[in-house]
């Protein structure tokens, strides 16, 4: 008894106990960004449910969201990896348009959907490799290089197609259409299945593989990473190529869903994709980010337009609300990261 009392009176021992005792906040602190994004999603859902219970109480709205949200969400997954590494890609909508043009042209010429898919993915990878060459080899800042690339790929696709759309009605009769954008069990859009699968794969790559460690290390401090032996050039090159492939895949999916290709395909995705990434908690400074946060961010962005329209407001509100949410998210996370750095 005397020994126990002596231990309790010993400030060094009680101090260690206090330090080892974690509060609920301490345990939740590593997940604060995910919880913040998830709270935003729940709050928006409750708001829209209150504004339009008929729409958001029906299953049809969720099937519609599962049809449209996966396209920007898959692009956002690839862009998250790039931004975590400290890079940027403004050319993915144009790469999407160019690669899907290659898909449409190949399918229209040969009638072989699998060959057209391979051609589109190769085109996307090549476009990503061009971006990597400009940024990694020539040292052009990625935001400048990819803005130029965006004009180039859009211009090339429009020039080759002579500004004309391509009908792909026959794609609906192919197995590729069922695999990419068919309906699993007769109701579940396959693009949603692909999106969840890619999110899991990319998350494992970022958080459970040495390649992901390299990405975060490069995003934190590229020069230090290089001095520590991290293959910075190879990693950044692979990320640009991966972004090109994912852009091509989404372009093919859109062609398959809509059964057509048009020269401005991909326009309109830029704001949605960047908003999804930053709402999801990815640092604008690089080094930090989660794929699950990006996925939740994409759901938030996809739900906003449907909620605004269902609530009886004009569609003109959509962009303003997108802008407000992006500004609030980026500012909030910037303040949190700044405090963490201190």
UniProtKB/TrEMBL annotation:
Assigned keywords, A-Z: Cell membrane, Membrane, Transmembrane, Transmembrane helix
TM spans (from-to): 31-49, 61-84, 91-109, 115-139, 151-169, 184-206, 237-262, 268-287, 294-314, 320-337
Domain of life: Bacteria
Cellular compartment(s): Cell inner membrane
Main location: membrane
Topological type in the membrane: Multi-pass membrane protein
Family statement: Belongs to the binding-protein-dependent transport system permease family. AraH/RbsC subfamily.
Protein name: ABC transporter permease
Native species: Endozoicomonas euniceicola
Record lineage: Bacteria, Pseudomonadati, Pseudomonadota, Gammaproteobacteria, Oceanospirillales
């Amino acid at each position: 008894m005397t020994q126990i009392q002596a231990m309790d009176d010993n400030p060094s021992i009680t101090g260690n106990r206090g330090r080892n005792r974690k509060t609920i906040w301490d345990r939740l602190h590593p997940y604060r960004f995910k919880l913040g994004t998830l709270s935003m999603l729940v709050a928006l859902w409750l708001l829209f449910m209150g504004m339009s219970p008929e729409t958001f109480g029906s299953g049809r709205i969720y099937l519609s969201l599962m049809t449209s949200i996966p396209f920007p969400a898959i692009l956002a997954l690839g862009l998250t990896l790039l931004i975590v590494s400290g890079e940027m890609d403004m050319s993915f909508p144009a790469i999407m348009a160019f690669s899907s043009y290659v898909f449409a042209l190949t399918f229209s010429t040969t009638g072989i959907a699998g060959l057209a898919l391979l051609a589109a993915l190769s085109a996307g990878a090549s476009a990503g490799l061009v971006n990597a060459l400009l940024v990694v080899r020539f040292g052009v800042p990625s935001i400048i290089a990819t803005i130029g690339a965006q004009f180039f790929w859009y211009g090339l696709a429009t020039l080759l197609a002579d500004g004309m759309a391509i009908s792909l009605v026959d794609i609906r009769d192919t197995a590729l259409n069922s695999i990419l954008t068919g309906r699993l069990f007769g109701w579940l859009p396959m693009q949603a299945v692909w999106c969840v699968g890619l999110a899991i794969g990319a998350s494992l790559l970022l958080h459970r593989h040495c390649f992901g460690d390299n990405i975060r290390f490069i995003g934190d401090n590229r020069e230090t990473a290089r001095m520590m032996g991290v293959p910075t050039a190879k990693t950044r090159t692979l990320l640009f190529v991966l972004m090109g492939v994912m852009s091509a895949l989404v372009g093919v999916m859109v062609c398959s869903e809509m059964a057509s290709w048009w020269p401005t395909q991909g326009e309109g995705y830029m704001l949605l994709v960047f908003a999804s990434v930053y709402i999801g908690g990815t640092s604008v400074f690089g080094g930090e980010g989660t794929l699950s946060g990006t996925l939740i961010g994409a759901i938030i962005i996809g739900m906003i337009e449907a909620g605004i329209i269902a609530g009886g407001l004009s569609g003109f509100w959509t962009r303003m609300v997108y802008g407000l949410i992006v500004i609030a998210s980026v500012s909030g996370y910037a303040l949190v990261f700044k405090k963490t750095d201190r």
